[in-house]
Amino acid sequence: xxxxxxxxxxxxxxxxxxxxxxxxxxxxxxxxxxxxxxxxxxxxxxxxxxxxxxxxxxxxxxxxxxxxxxxxxxxxxxxxxxxxxxxxxxxxxxxxxxxxxxxxxxxxxxxxxxxxxxxxxxxxxxxxxxxxxxxxxxxxxxxxxxxxxxxxxxxxxxxxxxxxxxxxxxxxxxxxxxxxxxxxxxxxxxxxxxxxxxxxxxxxxxxxxxxxxxxxxxxxxxxxxxxxxxxxxxxxxxxxxxxxxxxxxxxxxxxxxxxxxxxxxxxxxxxxxxxxxxxxxxxxxxxxxxxxxxxxxxxxxxxxxxxxxxxxxxxxxxxxxxxxxxxxxxxxxxxxxxxxxxxxxxxxxxxxxxxxxxxxxxxxxxxxxxxxxxxxxxxxxxxxxxxxxxxxxxxxxxxxxxxxxxxxx
Length: 409
What we know:
By secondary structure, the protein is α+β, with helices and mostly antiparallel strands. Among the domains are: 77-136 and 236-342, Lysozyme (Orthogonal Bundle), CATH 1.10.530.10; 348-407, Muramoyl-pentapeptide Carboxypeptidase, domain 1 (Orthogonal Bundle), CATH 1.10.101.10. It is 46% helix and 9% strand. The chain contains 18 helices and ten strands. It has helices spanning 19-31, 34-39, 44-51, 77-80, 83-86, 89-105, 107-117, 121-132, 143-153, 157-172, 195-201, 217-230, 263-268, 305-313, 317-330, 348-360, 374-386, 397-407; strands at 2-6, 12-16, 141-142, 181-182, 240-244, 261-262, 272-273, 287-291, 293-296, 300-303. The strands form three sheets. Strands 6-8-10-5-7 form a five-stranded antiparallel β-sheet. A two-stranded antiparallel ribbon has the order 1-2. The protein has a two-stranded antiparallel ribbon with strand order 3-4. A hairpin with a 5-residue loop joins β1 and β2. Residues 26-328 form the Transglycosylase SLT domain. Residues 349-403 form the Peptidoglycan binding-like domain.
């Protein structure tokens, strides 16, 4: 929060408000939520209890705090780690081994979930493993404090304001406050649900009259499967196939999600399934696009509809690759065939600068978010082609230095 101060000479400048004033504004904002909370069925006593003593947690990532020179780093590992760091083979192998053991323990439940929702047991187990290490990872934050902080100071205020209201509804409907531990983004439970998603997709699969994503494995896994089903999961279809691109004449800028053609056409064009794995006949006519999450410095994948369904659960390519590979291993598959080169991830502010420069050149038309996503990699590859640079579709410091020199700074 900012207030106006005055320098000598009468020039007005912005200065941080005192902490007490900032907290008063936060409390006023909390009180303003009452009409919308009431509309969701939250009683006044529950509302008052929910916000009593609530203060923002300014240590959370992804906040925009006026007057603070430097915000905390953005915290989602999928966007601040390199593919090699995020997709460490040891981690994938360990989770898959535990997943296979849990498959045996929950076989009947998983079979019932797959029959009802069409989502393979290996996929929901992999999500459980990635989200909370099968329940062994204890979420560190109070959900209401996280959601209130993100709703007031975050980059997606409207979304988190809504989630805070639904978290209050959870309290109203009997969820103990002590159970509502969350990630820094407010997701809760064994399979990490935001409050509104719980109300959309929560399932009482153990038939005890409650949708309990905190302690009931059947409810948590069925809720994850229901969410994937609702987002368009295609039963009997795979999520992706790792492939080896043609050795000659390959151009990484074709790794564009809009460059869709049937899987069989990619195979006929020389994209060989890695490790000798033959695609299922049911997938051959599925529209597929090429994905290279580390540019030419790592594995290549032909991705299909179910890839994007998992991505709708967590909007990150690395998350999907993590869940997909653990799922494949639980079902009897193995590691990625091609290893990840040790590339360097640019700092968020440098990636934002690169995106702005690419946008100014007309090569990038997506949001400035400091993430090395598909659109950033494609735009970077186009820049490399235009300027006769080595073509690898991976944003690194040398290309940013070239952009700066080209612009004269």
